[in-house]
Design a protein that fits this description.
Number of strands: 17
CATH superfamily of the largest domain: (Glycosyl)asparaginase
CATH topology of the largest domain: Glutamine Phosphoribosylpyrophosphate, subunit 1, domain 1
CATH architecture of the largest domain: 4-Layer Sandwich
Order of helices and strands: HEEHHEEHEHHEEHHEEEEEEHHHEEEE
Structural class: alpha+beta
Number of domains: 2
CATH class of the largest domain: Alpha Beta
Strand content: 15-25%
């Protein structure tokens, strides 16, 4: 565990008086304010200190999230974590300005460690929204970012351990070689049906799929098995942060290294506006964490902000966004953090207890950590 994680855990142990458990209630806040997913309080504090130094909310957002990139928060943010199926660590990040609705984001960035700062450069120095892969790397170098490996000895060790465990878990489905390290090749549906008859189906979600075939359907809605049961806090948490400045400007952003052992080439929800994060200064912001491959199909942060626009409280908007996903993916794991333009906030999680951090004048300028039990 890195020093940043130790600091966050120590903070939690020493500040239990500041830790609340929300059971269905949103919290009244104020602006300026910083909120972010998970108890990454060093990031929260850095963003707040940046605001207090007179810098703008976008500076605060990037400074705060960059702390997590450097500290490799929980191994799921920044360099040196979450190797993919060929051992690469790749980064996704985005920033969104709620005044202009401008977005800058990067996906599948490798070879530069400052993902959220590169995303901000996309916003500031191009008319594009999303750059990915080699192009994102080339742009970062053009903008003066230092080329530096996103892999480390620790990430290489994680990759070798995964291979020694027959490449389990992984994110493939309906393929030959699912229980090993490939080559992974498509299984035809006819083969699947034959294997079901013989009880030899290779698809690890076959039993769940069979249950769903028995008629768990309402109208045109059918429960989906396209989620990953191995998603959890230890291998799949993003820092999503929203900031409101003293002038009412709302910004939001995310940064992550994605899911451990993801399929090579995967880009998650974090760099997608409306999925990983969304901001509109006339309404508020929302940020997400969890199984991004599922969550991006619903644009939950966009949904939450639009729900607040229509009059929902942050609590209602978060719950609604999560419930929409759970209707199709009852076993998915994820969470949403919602913040309205007045500084009121709430979180909602599904499949795990969700914690988030808040700092404002009402907290005395010291981050406070909240815990939300999963929605039933």
């Amino acid at each position: 565990m890195n020093s940043g994680s130790h600091t966050s855990i120590l903070y939690l142990l020493l500040s239990s008086a500041l830790t609340w458990c929300l059971r269905g209630g949103g919290v009244e806040g104020a602006s300026p304010i910083v909120v972010n997913t998970w108890p990454f309080v060093n990031a929260t504090q850095r963003a707040w200190d940046t605001l207090q130094a007179g810098r703008d909310p976008m500076d605060a957002l990037v400074e705060g999230c960059s702390v997590c990139e450097r500290e490799q928060c929980d191994g799921s943010v920044g360099y040196g974590g979450s190797p993919d199926t060929i051992g690469d660590t790749t980064l996704d990040a985005m920033v969104m300005d709620g005044d202009t609705m401008d977005v800058g984001s990067v996906g599948y960035l490798r070879g530069v460690r400052d993902a959220i700062a590169v995303a901000r450069s996309v916003l500031d120095h191009s008319t594009e929204t999303l750059l990915a892969g080699d192009g994102a790397y080339s742009f970062a170098v053009q903008m003066g970012f230092k080329p530096e490996s996103t892999e480390t000895a620790a990430s290489h060790h994680m990759y070798e351990e995964w291979k020694n465990n027959n490449c389990q878990p992984n994110y493939y489905r309906n393929v030959h070689g699912l229980d090993g390290c490939g080559p992974w090749t498509p299984q035809l549906e006819a083969e699947n049906e034959e294997k079901e008859k013989e009880g030899k189906r290779e698809d690890k979600k076959g039993e769940e799929r069979d249950e769903k075939k028995e008629g768990k359907r309402e109208g045109k809605k059918r429960l989906s098995e396209r989620y990953n049961a191995d998603i959890n806090y230890d291998n799949h948490d993003t820092i999503g942060m929203a900031v409101i400045g003293g002038d009412g400007r709302v910004v939001a952003g995310t940064t992550t290294n994605g899911a451990s052992h993801k399929v090579h080439g995967r880009v998650g929800d974090s760099p997608i506006a409306g999925a990983g994060a969304y901001a509109d200064s006339s309404v508020g912001a929302a940020v997400a964490t969890g199984d991004g491959d599922v969550m991006m199909r619903f644009l939950p942060t966009y949904q939450a902000v639009e729900s607040m626009r229509r009059g929902m409280t942050p609590e209602q908007a978060c719950n609604d966004a999560i419930t929409r996903i759970a209707a199709y993916y009852p076993s998915f794991v994820g969470a949403i953090l919602c913040l309205d333009k007045e500084g009121n906030y709430a979180g909602a999680g599904h499949g795990w207890t969700f914690t988030f951090s808040v700092v404002s004048d009402l907290t005395g300028g010291v981050p406070k950590v909240y815990s939300v039990p999963p929605l039933s």
